[in-house]
Amino acid sequence: MRGRARHACVLPGDCDPGDCCANGANRSHLFMRRPYAIHRPVENAYLVRERDRRLLRELLGVVALVLVLGGGLLAYTWVHIEIVRTGYRIDTREKELNGLLESERRRRLEVARLTHPELIEERARRVLGMREPTLNQTVFYQELVR
After folding, report:
1. Model pTM?
2. CA–CA dist 49, 123 (Å, integer)
């Protein structure tokens, strides 16, 4: 026989002498087809598989336990991440505050330097060409009040 031939033999002794598997050449069909591997439909239409309520209850308990533990772990992780984020924000704000305080300190020093009377007098002489007033140019307050 050529091609894929179906044989009626199941065990090695079942082959006819004229078949291709009788001399041991092609025995692959013997290992593929066994009596217990044959699918047979169930003929009892009234057969009903009853659910095991105890097993279902245990399964639901395990699922609930896993959900509670998973939710707790998720909540713990979320809180921890928020704590770390808040710490980073605090650190950023502290650096910003330190920078602003340093800037304020520099500005105050600059104001103090620019409002120093000696510096103002020196600039007035150098840039504006001013000089010390003479006694004739000086007006006293008491003279104005009289």
Report:
1. 0.46
2. 106
Separation CA 74–CA 66 (nearest Å): 12
Rounded to whole angstroms, the Cα distance separating 105 from 128 reads 30
Given a contact cutoff of 8 angstroms between Cβ atoms, the answer to whether 125 and 131 are in contact is yes
CB-CB contact of 9 with 15 (8 Å): yes
Residue range 72-96, pLDDT digits in tens: 999 999 999 999 999 999 999 999 9
